[in-house]
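Lay summary. Proteins are chains of building blocks that fold into shapes, and those shapes determine what they do. In this project we predict the shape from the chain. Here is one chain we studied, written as its sequence of building blocks.
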Amino acid sequence: MATAYLFTGAVDPIAELLGQWSSNLNLASVLFRVAMTFLLSAFIGCERANKRHSAGLRTFIIVSLASALAMLLDEYMITSFGMGFPIVSAAAVVGISILSGNSILFSSKSQVKGLTTSVALWMCGMLGLLLGAGFYTASLAGFAALACCLWLLPAAEIDLKNRSNHFEIHLELNSRSSLQDFVTTLRRLGLKIDDIEANPAYLNSGLSVYSISLTITGAELKKYKKHSEIIEALSTLEYVNYIEEIK
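And here is the predicted shape, written in a compact code that computers can read:
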């Protein structure tokens, strides 16, 4: 039975172009699907590894290959034994979800890190399932969309964040008593405090450390000032030890 017909009853365009061998479950198609899975996941893994994320090249390749092999095993069980449900693939989806969730980290500055890596890892697992099922066109389209998100959209995302009236800062004050002065300065500048939270990770450091969510309310700031310029101005306050925007 042709893999490309198994779920939709339609022939995959790339499989049709390559020939019948790529749709059927045979040695050549299995090796081809595994090779494509390796290559596509390697591209994504290189991008993540280049940015020094927790899940890098090998992790992305292994997760994608495991997904593809899970689907191939289900294909074999369905075509050879008439199994009605892709059990191994379903288990693979659960495993990938757990693994990708574990790549999310929380830093000492109250920053959530690894969200993009987590969902990219999950997406690569889905691409592995698609390739294992012989859906080459859908997998290549998904890969192109994922690559676009990782390579092309970060600059646009940064620009949107810089234009936003809402941002969050990590603030280190020399003493706790300086917090009131800092809050007063923010209000005078036209900044509204939406939330302020003390960071317990610096409890014995001698510093008073906070994560503060701000909204730009002043008309002058909305027109001309970028977040980096506001933070640079705040960093000149004598009681501020360190300040940065939480991305």
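What the prediction tells us: Residues 1-9 have pLDDT under 50 and may be disordered.
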